[in-house]
Amino acid sequence: MSDPRKKRSGLSRLLRTIFFVDILKGMALTLKYFFKPKITLQYPEEKRQLPERYRGLHRLQRWADGSERCVACGLCAAVCPSECIYIEPGENENGERYAQVYEIELLRCVFCGFCVEACPYDAIVMTDEYELSDYEKERLLYTKERLLAETGFGEKPSV
Fold first, then answer.
1. Residue 89: Cβ within 10 Å count
2. Are 69 and 62 in contact (CB under 8 A)?
3. How do residues 86-126 score in pLDDT, each as one tens digit?
4. CB neighbours of 15 closer than 8 A, spacing ≥ 6?
């Protein structure tokens, strides 16, 4: 004996094939969005609006007098889950500490922002710069000179 459910499913499949039901559903969906405004951005000319708390490229800050804020305490390197920050401390002629070597390896960085939260001097910030790709792996190792470039100035606290 034949099952009536199998006949019904075979018949409905035949009718769907004859009347192009799936194609008509697809065309209806296309027409639904055809007359709505487009949301596509022309990327190089139009930049995407980023959220306020977006975490992009790192930057090292300077004080108002131009000196570096980083005192090489190592808290940012200690809290980093991917261990992408390398710091070597040094002292200047006044006996003040500074980061002699400060490197961030962006290929290992997960952009979590823990380094920013851990810094007691607000020496490191995350910008909204997101165009970080490069053809050479070596250029994704950001040195202190690259991280200090084009940064703002702030007030130096009284000691």
1. 15
2. yes
3. 999 999 998 999 999 999 999 999 999 999 999 999 999 99
4. 21
Backbone angles phi and psi of 23, in degrees to 5: -65, -40
Q: Of 119, 6, 2, 16, which is closest to residue 59 (Cα–Cα)?
A: 119
SS3 content of the chain, % helix, strand, coil (to 5): 30, 20, 50
Tokens of 80: 């980093």
**CA 82 remoteness from chain centre:** 15
Task: Of 94, 105, 144, 92, give the one whose Cα is nearest residue 123.
Answer: 144
pTM given for the model: 0.70
β-bridge mates for residue 126, sequence order: 58
Contact between 60 and 148 (Cβ < 8 Å) = yes
The Cα 5–Cα 96 span in angstroms is 85
